[in-house]
Amino acid sequence: GAGVSQSPSNKVTEKGKDVELRCDPISGHTALYWYRQSLGQGLEFLIYFQGNSAPDKSGLPSDRFSAERTGGSVSTLTIQRTQQEDSAVYLCASSLASANYGYTFGSGTRLTVV
Amino acid sequence: DQQVKQNSPSLSVQEGRISILNCDYTNSMFDYFLWYKKYPAEGPTFLISISSIKDKNEDGRFTVFLNKSAKHLSLHIVPSQPGDSAVYFCAASDYNNNDMRFGAGTRLTVKP
What we know:
The complex is a heterodimer of chains A (about 110) and B (about 110).
Chain A: E1 5-7, E2 10-13, E3 19-24, E4 31-37, E5 43-50, E6 65-69, E7 75-79, E8 88-95, E9 104-105, E10 109-113
Parallel strand pairs in A: 2-10
Antiparallel strand pairs in A: 1-3, 3-7, 4-5, 4-8, 6-7, 8-9, 8-10
Chain B: E1 4-5, E2 10-14, E3 19-25, E4 32-38, E5 45-51, E6 56-59, E7 62-67, E8 72-77, E9 86-93, E10 101-102, E11 106-111
Parallel strand pairs in B: 2-11
Antiparallel strand pairs in B: 1-3, 3-8, 4-5, 4-9, 6-7, 7-8, 9-10, 9-11
């Protein structure tokens, strides 16, 4: 597609359940990033994939969070045993190379943990 | 650790006037700065950037100013238009870093 696609756009889940968020980056973009935006906060870096290199997981807030990128394209962010503080908008972005080329963001997944 | 700060959560200006959005950073290793614009229910979109070798970059109605000694940058929009109403995020990175640090955003409202 022409842009970065994220699904679902909204997700309501019960505390303790696992959730999977999907990101389809722009074709040909080698770099893929996950961020989240909690209410009143800036965009918080979570994880970065670049080509076939090992991902930079330094932003993941706990071991309940994990992400994969299959075949250098689609990425899935998984949150296990969700907590209410996980409620946020999760944004995926892709770029041709490193951060300095500017990102193209998806519309985000609004996760609400009740 | 908030390395990029946007201290004004909101700004309201009249159509046709200048909008000035401010951003401060603490990490002296940052050498590339960007502004993103975000409409409700959409992802942020890239607006304008500046590298640390410059102190000004202009693109149409948008100009970004960088003051390295003060670790401060600003975005000027002139003349402001109602369609500019959005949340503006300031972001910073160093060239070798993978992650980009974002501010909390400033909600700009341009009144007709």
